[in-house]
Amino acid sequence: EVQLVESGGGSVQTGGRLRLSCTISGTTFDEYSIGWFRQAPGKEREGVSYIDPIDENKYYADFAEDRFFASSDNAANTVYLRMNRLKPADTAVYYCAATLTGTIANRIRLMKSWADTTNYSYWGQGTQVTVSS
């Protein structure tokens, strides 16, 4: 069974930073694409970041551009999300999610719709990020 576990959340003040980690187990790491999502109370889940599994080109939501940075360590089966200059609006539960990369055609489809939550079959339990004023 594929499992994902997030860690690294916590409480910080405005302008602070955190590094989130997501470790995947139960499968070969390079067969799956992993994205970061977040969900605030009463809000819909939204995409944060994604890394193309072939060329490692990175994609970010507008609110994350120039503040959040995604990376991966294939040997450790782990992806990271470095979050800088945090704001109260960043307060949410942060999730990592995985989907089977599959064919080249599917890779292209994911590049166009990486933030669509319905693309992902496996989700972690989430880690809370709280940013205070």
Record the SSE blueprint.
Elements (H helix, E strand, L loop, with lengths): L2 E5 L2 E4 L4 E8 L6 E8 L6 E6 L6 E3 L7 E6 L4 E6 L8 E9 L3 H9 L9 E2 L3 E6 L1
Parallel strand pairs: 2-11
Antiparallel strand pairs: 1-3, 3-8, 4-5, 4-9, 5-6, 7-8, 9-10, 9-11
Please tell me about this protein's structure.
With 133 residues, the protein is mostly beta strands. The protein is 7% helix and 47% strand. Strands 2, 4, 5, 6, 9, 10 and 11 form a 7-stranded mixed sheet that branches. It has a 4-stranded antiparallel sheet with strand order 1-3-8-7, with no helix packed on it. The relative contact order is 0.30.
Pick out the low-confidence regions. Answer: none
Summed up, the helix count is 1
Query: What percent strand?
Result: over 45%
Rounded mean pLDDT is 92
Distance between the termini: 41 Å
Largest sheet: 7 strands, mixed
Helix content: under 10%
Based on CA atoms alone, the radius of gyration comes out at 14 Å
Report the principal-axis shape. Answer: globular
The ordered string of helix (H) and strand (E) elements is EEEEEEEEEHEE
What is the structure about, briefly put?
Helix content is 7%, strand content 47%.
What would the keywords be for this entry?
133 residues; mainly beta; four-stranded antiparallel beta sheet; 1 helix; 7% helix; globular
